[in-house]
Amino acid sequence: KIYEAAMELFREKGFEETTMRDIAGKAGVALGATYYYYSSKDAIVLAFYREMQETSTPLVDEVLGHKKKLKERIHAVIDERLKLLAPNRKFCAALFRHAPDGADPLSPFSEDTHAIRDAAIEQMRIAIEGGDVKVPADLKPRLPYLLWLYQMALIMFWLYDHSPEQERTKKLIEKSLGLLVNLLRVSSLPLMKPLRKAALELVETATV
Prior knowledge:
This protein has 208 residues and is an all-alpha fold.
């Protein structure tokens, strides 16, 4: 009841403009009761993040069960995520302002979102495992995380894409994903090993 009231207000008024008192009034409960279940608006948003991830898991599992090509599998993971976020697109755009600061609890890079982030990365790992592209052993452990970052970048683009039905995002996903999978196909060539090593060292430096 409190969660549903909060989400409705976040969509109508915006996250920053909504207060805990507003949420209590909308839910028809005492302010103290609202704080009992949710210590802050951030706690409600974290519940939203968890709900999105938990809802996506069976949907993604179902879709991946029917796809073998890696491009289609990664595309499916991203598509399901965007479908789930679509009803709250405006609200999510406001939340993305918190994304760059890993110390912000609402950032997808924060300690508070660690479990949610790990579950999303695991979806990418499953997509890779069942695909038709052999990934080099040195790249395989880091690739799910890199694909999650790719997905986050696409979500950010989608949130601010004002083209009809976000057609620009659809084209970006199709073209960039095709390029990405082709790069993965050639990444196992012996000639690419020094480049893979340099790229992985760069990733390690950026994520330490």
